[in-house]
Amino acid sequence: MAKTKELSKDVRDKIVDLHKAGMGYKTIAKQLVMETTAVSTSTLTNDEFDRNAPRICGVCGDKATGFHFNAMTCEGCKGFFRRSMKRKASFTCPFNGSCTITKDNRRHCQACRLKRCVDIGMMKEFILTDEEVQRKKDLIQRRKDEEAQREAQREAQRPRLSEEQSQVIATLVEAHHKTYDDSYSDFNRFRPPVREGPVTRSASRAASLHSLSDASSDSFSHSPESVDTKLMNFSNLLMMYQDQGSSPDSNDDDSSKLSMLPHLADLVSYSIQKVIGFAKMIPGFRELTAEDQIALLKSSAIEVIMLRSNQSFNLEDMSWSCGGPDFKYCVNDVTKAGHTLELLEPLVKFQVGLKKLNLHEEEHVLLMAICLLSPDRPGVQDHGRIEALQDRLSETLQAYIRLHHPGSCLVYARMIQKLADLRSLNEEHSKQYRSLSFQPEHSMQLTPLVLEVFGSEVS
């Protein structure tokens, strides 16, 4: 017992010194616990300091809640010791101070319970005064308030969409859903696809390209490596034929047999109608003059169709799947509508690249609207107004990307690059369309809407 009192006096002296040096009681407690663990009078074993070991109150054996006043105790013994010290209580044991304190009988003998508290190292110097308790509460509350303020600042700095931007996106998504039928049920109303008949040189090349995909379709994965390998093979096969001339079908006696032209002409005409419907629902589009609306639609329709067709593009065999087998279109099918690989090879590359971006639907519809509202289209009059509409869409797209792709600074740039790719595809498409439409036997297969949109230059 003498050893306990002597050690306690040393500890008290140290507390006074540390406190005079400006150290807070909480810091003092942590330091003393570390220093006195090896030699303290506490009966705690090394196992009780193990985080995974059950923590037991050194006074009564109940479940401990932590270190209180320099000893591992339960909440009950912590409160008992604090009250006893504050009241300067003096207890007497009726059994000569030999009571064993347990969870069940700890209330029976306050004297032995208090003695046990002191024996395990509990110290009244660690008890805060009422003023210290209040200061501690104030400090805790101040820290909570500061953390709440910091969280509010972080929340204010987080990327977010304005109410207007959210509404624009919702409008475009709804417009897309209303003008894009992913069941492709209307395709049955087109003139039927005819894939038989004489095979042109361009169609023969396309068949070779398509068989390249089919040969390994079972093992073809969506990984970037396998897609890139396919595209490299696609390009290599195209180069094998380049010595045969840039217009491979020009000398073919059977070049007039474009069996897929009627069906694909109907498909394109249908797609143009849907693009027009989509455009009319873009915020601000209908406020433009009729002349500017027409100029924008004529110049951008094929680009928006190419963007939309990515939804049906299949990476496994590089085809467009629009429902049943009759409406699964490969490169070979499109060559039978008069187009050559000078258009189709970069088109497939474009579709693969766009697919690999894994765009959200919201990003896809914004990209279509930005594509359509380009102020540099031929025939546009009110450049400033159209540019303002496009800028608003671009800002919305960038805000959406910041929100959903944090840290991905290249996503927007890659999407805008796709618009540049579409311009090149549009130019090649126009060239091939003019070549096709100059032949009466082919132009008569086209619909009035296709002739109107693609047939006349916008001045």
From TrEMBL:
Residues 141-163 have a biased composition (Basic and acidic residues). Residues 141-165, 184-206 are annotated as: Disordered. GO terms for molecular function: nuclear receptor activity; vitamin D response element binding; zinc ion binding. Pfam families: Hormone_recep (PF00104), HTH_SB (PF25787), zf-C4 (PF00105). Nuclear receptor for calcitriol, the active form of vitamin D3 which mediates the action of this vitamin on cells. Enters the nucleus upon vitamin D3 binding where it forms heterodimers with the retinoid X receptor/RXR. The VDR-RXR heterodimers bind to specific response elements on DNA and activate the transcription of vitamin D3-responsive target genes. Recruited to promoters via its interaction with BAZ1B/WSTF which mediates the interaction with acetylated histones, an essential step for VDR-promoter association. Plays a central role in calcium homeostasis. Homodimer in the absence of bound vitamin D3. Heterodimer with RXRA after vitamin D3 binding. Interacts with ncoa1 and possibly other coactivators, leading to a strong increase of transcription of target genes. This is Vitamin D3 receptor B. It comes from Coregonus suidteri.
